[in-house]
Design goal:
Layout: E1 23-27, H1 28-45, E2 48-52, H2 62-68, E3 71-74, H3 77-86, E4 90-94, H4 100-109, E5 112-115, H5 118-130, E6 134-140, E7 162-163, E8 177-179, H6 188-204, E9 211-213, H7 227-241, E10 244-249, H8 251-254, E11 258-269, E12 273-277, H9 281-284, H10 287-290, E13 304-309, E14 318-324, E15 333-336, H11 343-346, E16 357-361, E17 368-372, H12 376-381
Helix pairs in contact: 1-7, 3-4, 4-5, 6-7
Bound molecules: pyridoxal-5'-phosphate.
Length: 384
Protein backbone atom coordinates (compact mmCIF):
# COMPACT_ATOMS: atom_id res chain seq x y z
CA UNK A 1 0.00 0.00 0.00
CA UNK A 2 1.09 3.61 -0.35
CA UNK A 3 0.87 6.25 2.33
CA UNK A 4 -2.04 8.65 1.95
CA UNK A 5 -0.20 11.47 3.75
CA UNK A 6 -0.33 14.81 1.99
CA UNK A 7 3.02 15.93 3.48
CA UNK A 8 4.63 17.56 6.48
CA UNK A 9 2.15 20.42 6.92
CA UNK A 10 2.89 22.46 10.02
CA UNK A 11 5.23 19.77 11.38
CA UNK A 12 7.92 21.17 9.06
CA UNK A 13 8.28 23.91 11.69
CA UNK A 14 8.39 21.61 14.74
CA UNK A 15 11.72 21.22 16.56
CA UNK A 16 12.02 17.45 17.06
CA UNK A 17 14.39 17.97 20.01
CA UNK A 18 11.53 19.36 22.14
CA UNK A 19 10.12 15.94 22.96
CA UNK A 20 11.50 12.75 24.48
CA UNK A 21 12.26 9.96 22.01
CA UNK A 22 10.35 8.10 20.77
CA UNK A 23 7.23 10.26 20.98
CA UNK A 24 3.95 10.71 19.16
CA UNK A 25 3.27 14.41 18.63
CA UNK A 26 -0.30 15.36 17.76
CA UNK A 27 -1.04 18.80 16.35
CA UNK A 28 -4.34 19.78 17.92
CA UNK A 29 -4.88 22.43 15.24
CA UNK A 30 -4.63 19.84 12.46
CA UNK A 31 -6.98 17.57 14.39
CA UNK A 32 -9.46 20.39 14.88
CA UNK A 33 -9.32 21.24 11.16
CA UNK A 34 -10.26 17.64 10.37
CA UNK A 35 -13.06 17.78 12.93
CA UNK A 36 -14.39 20.99 11.37
CA UNK A 37 -14.51 19.31 7.96
CA UNK A 38 -16.43 16.41 9.48
CA UNK A 39 -18.85 18.66 11.33
CA UNK A 40 -19.55 20.54 8.08
CA UNK A 41 -20.19 17.19 6.39
CA UNK A 42 -22.56 16.16 9.18
CA UNK A 43 -24.45 19.45 8.87
CA UNK A 44 -24.68 19.23 5.09
CA UNK A 45 -25.67 15.56 4.95
CA UNK A 46 -27.82 15.00 8.03
CA UNK A 47 -25.54 12.10 8.99
CA UNK A 48 -24.18 11.53 12.48
CA UNK A 49 -20.41 11.08 12.46
CA UNK A 50 -18.80 8.94 15.13
CA UNK A 51 -15.12 8.54 16.02
CA UNK A 52 -13.92 4.94 15.57
CA UNK A 53 -11.91 4.43 18.75
CA UNK A 54 -10.06 1.47 17.25
CA UNK A 55 -8.15 3.96 15.08
CA UNK A 56 -7.62 6.87 17.45
CA UNK A 57 -8.45 6.69 21.13
CA UNK A 58 -6.24 9.44 22.49
CA UNK A 59 -8.70 10.36 25.20
CA UNK A 60 -6.81 13.43 26.37
CA UNK A 61 -8.17 15.02 23.18
CA UNK A 62 -11.74 13.80 23.78
CA UNK A 63 -12.96 17.29 24.85
CA UNK A 64 -11.97 18.59 21.40
CA UNK A 65 -13.56 15.62 19.61
CA UNK A 66 -16.74 16.06 21.65
CA UNK A 67 -17.19 19.60 20.32
CA UNK A 68 -17.55 18.37 16.74
CA UNK A 69 -18.64 14.73 16.50
CA UNK A 70 -21.85 12.97 17.55
CA UNK A 71 -20.15 10.22 19.53
CA UNK A 72 -17.93 7.19 19.18
CA UNK A 73 -17.92 3.62 17.99
CA UNK A 74 -16.33 0.80 19.96
CA UNK A 75 -14.98 -2.62 18.98
CA UNK A 76 -15.82 -4.29 22.25
CA UNK A 77 -16.15 -3.88 26.00
CA UNK A 78 -12.99 -1.97 26.79
CA UNK A 79 -13.43 0.59 24.05
CA UNK A 80 -17.08 0.94 25.11
CA UNK A 81 -15.94 1.68 28.67
CA UNK A 82 -13.37 4.16 27.37
CA UNK A 83 -16.06 5.83 25.30
CA UNK A 84 -18.33 6.34 28.28
CA UNK A 85 -15.45 7.36 30.57
CA UNK A 86 -14.10 10.09 28.29
CA UNK A 87 -16.31 10.86 25.30
CA UNK A 88 -19.79 12.27 24.93
CA UNK A 89 -22.69 11.59 22.60
CA UNK A 90 -23.83 8.29 21.21
CA UNK A 91 -22.04 4.97 21.25
CA UNK A 92 -22.28 2.26 18.61
CA UNK A 93 -20.56 -1.06 19.29
CA UNK A 94 -19.59 -3.63 16.71
CA UNK A 95 -17.62 -6.82 17.13
CA UNK A 96 -17.22 -9.74 14.69
CA UNK A 97 -18.43 -11.89 17.60
CA UNK A 98 -19.37 -10.79 21.12
CA UNK A 99 -18.30 -12.91 24.08
CA UNK A 100 -21.41 -13.83 26.14
CA UNK A 101 -19.79 -12.45 29.30
CA UNK A 102 -19.47 -8.97 27.72
CA UNK A 103 -22.91 -8.58 26.20
CA UNK A 104 -24.87 -7.14 29.13
CA UNK A 105 -22.32 -4.45 29.87
CA UNK A 106 -21.74 -3.51 26.24
CA UNK A 107 -25.50 -3.28 25.72
CA UNK A 108 -25.89 -1.11 28.82
CA UNK A 109 -23.18 1.24 27.58
CA UNK A 110 -24.20 1.37 23.89
CA UNK A 111 -27.01 3.03 21.98
CA UNK A 112 -26.59 0.69 19.01
CA UNK A 113 -25.15 -2.80 19.18
CA UNK A 114 -24.27 -4.06 15.72
CA UNK A 115 -24.03 -7.81 15.26
CA UNK A 116 -21.96 -9.54 12.62
CA UNK A 117 -24.36 -12.40 11.91
CA UNK A 118 -27.98 -13.39 12.26
CA UNK A 119 -26.90 -16.10 14.71
CA UNK A 120 -25.39 -13.49 17.04
CA UNK A 121 -28.56 -11.40 16.69
CA UNK A 122 -30.80 -14.26 17.71
CA UNK A 123 -28.48 -15.26 20.56
CA UNK A 124 -28.17 -11.82 22.14
CA UNK A 125 -31.02 -9.60 20.92
CA UNK A 126 -33.18 -10.12 24.02
CA UNK A 127 -30.31 -9.12 26.33
CA UNK A 128 -29.45 -6.09 24.21
CA UNK A 129 -33.05 -4.93 24.00
CA UNK A 130 -33.55 -5.36 27.74
CA UNK A 131 -30.66 -2.93 28.25
CA UNK A 132 -32.43 -0.43 25.99
CA UNK A 133 -30.00 -0.88 23.11
CA UNK A 134 -31.03 -0.89 19.43
CA UNK A 135 -29.98 -3.86 17.32
CA UNK A 136 -28.03 -3.54 14.10
CA UNK A 137 -26.83 -6.11 11.60
CA UNK A 138 -23.61 -5.81 9.64
CA UNK A 139 -24.07 -6.97 6.09
CA UNK A 140 -21.38 -7.87 3.62
CA UNK A 141 -22.38 -6.27 0.31
CA UNK A 142 -20.23 -8.83 -1.54
CA UNK A 143 -18.98 -5.96 -3.67
CA UNK A 144 -15.21 -5.64 -3.46
CA UNK A 145 -13.45 -2.30 -3.77
CA UNK A 146 -10.30 -3.06 -1.77
CA UNK A 147 -6.82 -3.15 -3.28
CA UNK A 148 -5.44 -5.53 -0.65
CA UNK A 149 -7.43 -8.57 0.51
CA UNK A 150 -6.31 -8.15 4.15
CA UNK A 151 -8.02 -4.76 4.22
CA UNK A 152 -11.04 -5.74 2.14
CA UNK A 153 -14.02 -6.84 4.25
CA UNK A 154 -15.76 -7.99 1.05
CA UNK A 155 -13.00 -10.30 -0.11
CA UNK A 156 -14.03 -13.89 -0.88
CA UNK A 157 -14.68 -15.92 2.26
CA UNK A 158 -14.74 -12.82 4.48
CA UNK A 159 -15.89 -13.36 8.08
CA UNK A 160 -17.09 -9.75 8.29
CA UNK A 161 -20.83 -9.25 7.97
CA UNK A 162 -23.72 -11.44 6.91
CA UNK A 163 -23.35 -11.92 3.14
CA UNK A 164 -26.05 -9.94 1.40
CA UNK A 165 -26.92 -12.97 -0.74
CA UNK A 166 -28.01 -14.73 2.46
CA UNK A 167 -30.32 -11.90 3.46
CA UNK A 168 -32.79 -11.85 0.59
CA UNK A 169 -35.31 -14.04 2.38
CA UNK A 170 -34.22 -13.24 5.92
CA UNK A 171 -36.53 -11.38 8.25
CA UNK A 172 -35.18 -8.15 9.71
CA UNK A 173 -37.75 -8.24 12.54
CA UNK A 174 -36.28 -6.62 15.61
CA UNK A 175 -33.34 -5.18 13.68
CA UNK A 176 -33.37 -1.39 13.73
CA UNK A 177 -30.41 -0.69 11.53
CA UNK A 178 -28.11 -1.99 8.83
CA UNK A 179 -24.36 -1.55 8.88
CA UNK A 180 -21.69 -1.98 6.28
CA UNK A 181 -17.98 -1.27 6.43
CA UNK A 182 -16.30 -2.04 3.13
CA UNK A 183 -13.52 0.47 2.44
CA UNK A 184 -10.03 1.34 3.64
CA UNK A 185 -8.60 4.85 3.22
CA UNK A 186 -10.63 5.36 0.02
CA UNK A 187 -12.35 8.14 -1.86
CA UNK A 188 -16.02 8.69 -2.69
CA UNK A 189 -16.23 6.76 -5.98
CA UNK A 190 -15.79 3.27 -4.39
CA UNK A 191 -18.52 4.13 -1.89
CA UNK A 192 -20.80 5.27 -4.67
CA UNK A 193 -20.28 1.98 -6.53
CA UNK A 194 -20.91 0.02 -3.34
CA UNK A 195 -24.14 1.87 -2.69
CA UNK A 196 -25.27 1.20 -6.26
CA UNK A 197 -24.57 -2.49 -5.64
CA UNK A 198 -26.67 -2.64 -2.45
CA UNK A 199 -29.51 -0.35 -3.56
CA UNK A 200 -31.77 -3.17 -4.90
CA UNK A 201 -31.42 -4.95 -1.53
CA UNK A 202 -32.13 -1.76 0.41
CA UNK A 203 -35.26 -1.24 -1.69
CA UNK A 204 -36.39 -4.79 -0.96
CA UNK A 205 -36.16 -4.03 2.78
CA UNK A 206 -37.39 -0.43 2.62
CA UNK A 207 -39.40 0.51 5.69
CA UNK A 208 -37.89 -2.33 7.73
CA UNK A 209 -34.86 -0.44 9.11
CA UNK A 210 -34.49 2.97 10.74
CA UNK A 211 -30.81 3.66 10.26
CA UNK A 212 -27.97 2.89 7.92
CA UNK A 213 -24.37 2.96 9.14
CA UNK A 214 -21.79 3.15 6.35
CA UNK A 215 -18.82 2.34 8.60
CA UNK A 216 -15.38 3.85 8.10
CA UNK A 217 -12.65 3.79 5.49
CA UNK A 218 -13.83 7.08 3.93
CA UNK A 219 -10.80 9.40 3.80
CA UNK A 220 -13.02 12.46 3.95
CA UNK A 221 -10.35 14.84 5.31
CA UNK A 222 -7.86 14.23 2.51
CA UNK A 223 -7.80 17.37 0.37
CA UNK A 224 -8.94 15.54 -2.77
CA UNK A 225 -12.00 13.80 -1.22
CA UNK A 226 -15.31 14.69 -2.86
CA UNK A 227 -16.98 15.84 0.37
CA UNK A 228 -19.91 17.47 -1.46
CA UNK A 229 -20.55 14.24 -3.35
CA UNK A 230 -20.60 12.28 -0.10
CA UNK A 231 -22.90 14.81 1.59
CA UNK A 232 -25.37 14.64 -1.31
CA UNK A 233 -25.22 10.84 -1.33
CA UNK A 234 -25.89 10.59 2.42
CA UNK A 235 -28.77 13.01 2.18
CA UNK A 236 -30.26 11.11 -0.76
CA UNK A 237 -29.98 7.81 1.10
CA UNK A 238 -31.64 9.30 4.16
CA UNK A 239 -34.48 10.73 2.06
CA UNK A 240 -35.00 7.71 -0.16
CA UNK A 241 -35.06 5.10 2.58
CA UNK A 242 -36.35 7.37 5.39
CA UNK A 243 -33.40 6.44 7.57
CA UNK A 244 -30.85 8.16 9.77
CA UNK A 245 -27.35 7.76 8.32
CA UNK A 246 -24.11 7.25 10.23
CA UNK A 247 -20.41 7.18 9.47
CA UNK A 248 -17.84 5.82 11.93
CA UNK A 249 -14.53 7.36 10.96
CA UNK A 250 -11.09 6.70 12.37
CA UNK A 251 -8.35 7.58 9.91
CA UNK A 252 -10.21 10.63 8.61
CA UNK A 253 -10.44 12.11 12.12
CA UNK A 254 -6.71 12.01 12.82
CA UNK A 255 -5.41 12.08 9.24
CA UNK A 256 -2.07 13.91 8.93
CA UNK A 257 -2.48 15.23 12.49
CA UNK A 258 0.42 13.40 14.14
CA UNK A 259 4.04 12.36 13.73
CA UNK A 260 6.21 9.78 15.44
CA UNK A 261 9.54 11.26 16.49
CA UNK A 262 12.54 8.98 16.94
CA UNK A 263 16.28 9.06 17.22
CA UNK A 264 19.16 7.44 15.32
CA UNK A 265 20.99 5.02 17.64
CA UNK A 266 23.65 3.74 15.25
CA UNK A 267 24.60 3.80 11.59
CA UNK A 268 26.13 0.69 10.03
CA UNK A 269 26.86 -0.45 6.46
CA UNK A 270 25.73 -3.50 4.54
CA UNK A 271 24.79 -2.87 0.92
CA UNK A 272 24.54 0.82 1.85
CA UNK A 273 24.05 2.74 5.07
CA UNK A 274 21.62 1.42 7.68
CA UNK A 275 20.40 3.69 10.46
CA UNK A 276 19.03 1.85 13.46
CA UNK A 277 16.43 3.95 15.26
CA UNK A 278 14.75 3.78 18.63
CA UNK A 279 11.53 3.41 16.59
CA UNK A 280 10.63 -0.16 15.78
CA UNK A 281 8.32 -0.94 12.88
CA UNK A 282 7.26 -4.04 14.76
CA UNK A 283 6.47 -2.26 18.06
CA UNK A 284 5.58 1.29 17.12
CA UNK A 285 4.31 1.28 13.51
CA UNK A 286 3.19 -2.34 12.97
CA UNK A 287 1.21 -1.44 9.86
CA UNK A 288 4.54 -0.80 8.13
CA UNK A 289 5.02 -4.59 8.23
CA UNK A 290 1.39 -5.66 8.20
CA UNK A 291 0.03 -3.55 5.33
CA UNK A 292 2.90 -3.28 4.29
CA UNK A 293 3.61 0.38 3.52
CA UNK A 294 6.40 2.93 3.68
CA UNK A 295 5.55 5.90 5.92
CA UNK A 296 6.73 9.30 4.70
CA UNK A 297 9.69 10.86 6.48
CA UNK A 298 9.49 14.46 7.67
CA UNK A 299 11.70 16.73 5.56
CA UNK A 300 13.07 13.95 3.34
CA UNK A 301 15.61 15.41 0.94
CA UNK A 302 19.03 14.60 -0.55
CA UNK A 303 20.81 11.98 -2.64
CA UNK A 304 22.08 9.49 -0.08
CA UNK A 305 19.88 6.43 0.28
CA UNK A 306 19.73 5.08 3.83
CA UNK A 307 17.79 2.13 5.18
CA UNK A 308 15.91 3.05 8.37
CA UNK A 309 15.28 0.12 10.68
CA UNK A 310 14.19 -0.74 14.20
CA UNK A 311 16.20 -2.07 17.14
CA UNK A 312 14.33 -5.34 17.85
CA UNK A 313 15.62 -8.83 17.06
CA UNK A 314 13.17 -9.28 14.18
CA UNK A 315 15.18 -9.41 10.94
CA UNK A 316 12.26 -7.76 9.18
CA UNK A 317 12.05 -4.86 11.62
CA UNK A 318 12.78 -2.44 8.79
CA UNK A 319 10.92 0.77 7.98
CA UNK A 320 12.20 1.45 4.48
CA UNK A 321 14.73 3.28 2.34
CA UNK A 322 14.88 7.06 2.62
CA UNK A 323 16.98 9.86 1.21
CA UNK A 324 19.25 12.08 3.28
CA UNK A 325 21.53 14.97 2.37
CA UNK A 326 24.27 13.59 4.65
CA UNK A 327 24.97 10.32 6.38
CA UNK A 328 22.76 10.29 9.51
CA UNK A 329 24.54 10.50 12.83
CA UNK A 330 23.78 8.82 16.16
CA UNK A 331 21.61 11.18 18.20
CA UNK A 332 19.97 12.73 15.12
CA UNK A 333 16.18 13.05 15.30
CA UNK A 334 13.82 11.85 12.57
CA UNK A 335 10.02 11.75 12.33
CA UNK A 336 7.50 9.75 10.34
CA UNK A 337 4.36 11.45 9.05
CA UNK A 338 0.70 10.59 9.57
CA UNK A 339 1.17 8.35 12.61
CA UNK A 340 -1.73 9.51 14.82
CA UNK A 341 -4.21 6.89 13.65
CA UNK A 342 -3.67 3.16 14.23
CA UNK A 343 0.06 3.40 15.14
CA UNK A 344 -0.59 4.75 18.65
CA UNK A 345 -3.29 2.22 19.49
CA UNK A 346 -1.25 -0.70 18.13
CA UNK A 347 2.03 -0.15 19.99
CA UNK A 348 3.50 -3.06 21.94
CA UNK A 349 6.57 -3.82 24.05
CA UNK A 350 8.10 -6.76 22.14
CA UNK A 351 11.80 -7.06 23.09
CA UNK A 352 11.05 -4.83 26.10
CA UNK A 353 10.83 -1.83 23.79
CA UNK A 354 9.76 1.42 25.42
CA UNK A 355 6.38 2.76 24.41
CA UNK A 356 6.51 6.19 22.74
CA UNK A 357 5.54 9.17 24.87
CA UNK A 358 2.49 11.16 23.75
CA UNK A 359 2.59 14.92 23.26
CA UNK A 360 0.09 17.54 22.12
CA UNK A 361 1.42 20.46 20.12
CA UNK A 362 -0.53 23.49 19.00
CA UNK A 363 0.90 24.59 15.67
CA UNK A 364 -0.70 28.04 16.02
CA UNK A 365 0.55 28.96 19.49
CA UNK A 366 3.55 26.57 19.52
CA UNK A 367 2.45 25.37 22.99
CA UNK A 368 3.59 21.82 23.76
CA UNK A 369 2.33 19.42 26.44
CA UNK A 370 3.81 16.00 27.10
CA UNK A 371 0.62 14.23 28.17
CA UNK A 372 1.98 10.74 28.75
CA UNK A 373 5.33 9.04 29.30
CA UNK A 374 5.78 5.33 29.85
CA UNK A 375 8.39 3.48 31.84
CA UNK A 376 9.54 0.02 32.84
CA UNK A 377 6.46 -0.51 35.02
CA UNK A 378 4.21 -0.42 31.93
CA UNK A 379 6.20 -3.29 30.45
CA UNK A 380 6.36 -5.30 33.67
CA UNK A 381 2.75 -4.58 34.55
CA UNK A 382 1.27 -6.29 31.51
CA UNK A 383 3.16 -9.51 32.17
CA UNK A 384 3.21 -11.86 35.09
C1 LIG B 1 -16.40 -1.68 11.56
C2 LIG B 1 -15.43 -0.57 11.38
N1 LIG B 1 -15.86 0.71 11.49
C3 LIG B 1 -15.02 1.75 11.34
C4 LIG B 1 -13.68 1.56 11.07
C5 LIG B 1 -12.78 2.75 10.93
O1 LIG B 1 -12.19 2.78 9.68
P1 LIG B 1 -11.22 3.98 9.26
O2 LIG B 1 -10.26 4.17 10.37
O3 LIG B 1 -10.55 3.47 8.02
O4 LIG B 1 -12.09 5.16 9.00
C6 LIG B 1 -13.19 0.25 10.93
C7 LIG B 1 -11.78 -0.02 10.65
O5 LIG B 1 -11.32 -1.10 10.48
C8 LIG B 1 -14.09 -0.85 11.11
O6 LIG B 1 -13.67 -2.12 11.01
Amino acid sequence: MTTQSMGSGQFAAFDLARVPSPCFVIDEVALENNLKTLKALADASGADILLALKAFSMWSLAPLVNQYLSGTCASGLWEARLARAHYGGQLTSFSPAYAPSDVDEIAALSDHMVFNSLTQVSRFEAQARKAGCEIGLRMNPEHSEGEVARYDPCTGGSRLGQPISQLADASLDGISGLHMHTLCEQGFAPLQRTIEAVTPFLHSKKGQFDWLNLGGGHLVTRADYDVDGLAACLRALGDEFKVKTYLELGTAVAFDAGILVGEVLDVTDNDGPIAILDISASCHMPDVIEAPYRPSLLGETGELEVKLAGPTCLAGDEIGHYHFADRPQAGQRVAFLDQAHYSMVKTNTFNGMALPAIAIWNSQTDALRIVREFDYSDFEGRLS
